[in-house]
Amino acid sequence: MVRGRISQLSVRDVRFPTSLGGHGSDAMHTDPDYSAAYVVIETDAEDGIKGCGITFTLGKGTEVDWSREGCGAPGDSSCPKCGVGLVGQAGGKACLEVTCGHEKQMLAQGYPAYTTSCAWLGYSDDTLKQLCAQALKDGWTRFKVKVGADLQDDVRRCQIIRDMIGPEKTLMMDANQRWDVPEAVEWMSKLAKFKPLWIEEPTSPDDILGHAAISKALVPLGIGIATGEQCHNRVIFKQLLQAKALQFLQIDSCRLGSVNENLSVLLMAKKFEIPVCPHAGGVGLCELVQHLIIFDYISVSASLKNRMCEYVDHLHEHFKYPVMMQRASYMPPKDPGYSTEMKEESVKKHQYPDGEVWKKLLAAQEN
Ligand SMILES: C[C@H](O)[C@@H](O)[C@@H](O)[C@H](O)C(=O)O
Ligand SMILES: [Mg+2]
């Protein structure tokens, strides 16, 4: 039913200076400023219905004029992490009438999550220990640690985190594409003693057969391959699944353009019996993907076995409908829409380069 016409469209470059604290850092992206191209489509409908969309980048990636900036060169750590994938938040009715057991279970217990927030690569050992201790207190049982830049550092950091969480809790590792195929196998053979459930993005996300080779070598060591946060369409996922290149599939709500593209991947994963463990974090990715993974549980996979959704503890305060976490789980959102809308005040403050936050930072840099 048509309810008005599009009357206005705005695109804003919103950046958060996360690099100042090393938040979000990994072996490839050493100083990311979590950022978004934030789009609002307004209509002239009487009820004021509007659509909001985000594309997650690491700062410079938000600039339209890349080439002049020289952005896009391999190794430029501020290049866009995620491609263009607009997702909307349109008004509508929240559909939370309890109709099935799985839905009831989600409403009561939520969808299980793991945390990446303790172990970004740029964090000191002290910060790692402090955040890990706090996360354990808060009830987290699944942890992801960044690896891939320096083997000795990885061994030390993995030892710290494994000692702190004990042998039973789940540990995952993420190399953010840093290795080539033989290097990935060799490096992970050295980290196998820390019993990681998976190694994520061990090599280039485009190297489907490379992932298959790594998977063949590491599965006998009890290590699965997780990938998907850089996969931009269902065809890539189809090939990863057909080639038996992954044991955990990581959809990304923004990288895969549209909800429909995400749904087709959820259905393929079900057919291949591969658990979906979404990528989240960034700017708003937790807010968005929680809808998809809870839908997956209620309507597609009907299983929580080997399944969990990533959680990162940053920037939720800038969203109008932030995620609600309880006992290390995502509690189902009860507001209508895709939870994409940002607070106007946050957008204004963090707009690049003329928002209050950036004016101050850029002025300080000049002095
Ligand atoms: C640059 C970013 O923080 C990435 O390190 C992050 O998205 C990561 O790959 C993840 O799995 O959370
Ligand atoms: Mg990752």
Give the CATH superfamily of the domain at 99-331: Enolase-like C-terminal domain
Number of DSSP-assigned strands: 12
Any idea what the shape is? Answer: globular
Helix/strand order, N-terminal first: EEEHHEHEHEHEHEHEHHEEEHH
Q: Fill in the CATH topology of the domain at 99-331.
A: TIM Barrel
What share of residues is helical? 25-40%
Q: Tell me which ligands are bound.
A: 6-deoxy-L-galactonic acid, magnesium ion
Which class of secondary structure composition applies to the elements? alpha/beta
**Low-pLDDT runs:** 65-76, 78-98
> How much of the residues is beta strand, in percent?
15-25%
Number of helices: 11
Name of the level-1 CATH class of the domain at 99-331: Alpha Beta
Give the integer mean of the pLDDT values.
91
Describe the sheet with the most strands. Answer: 9 strands, mixed
Radius of gyration, in Å, reads 20 Å
- Span between N and C termini? 56 Å
Q: Architecture of the domain at 99-331, according to CATH? A: Alpha-Beta Barrel
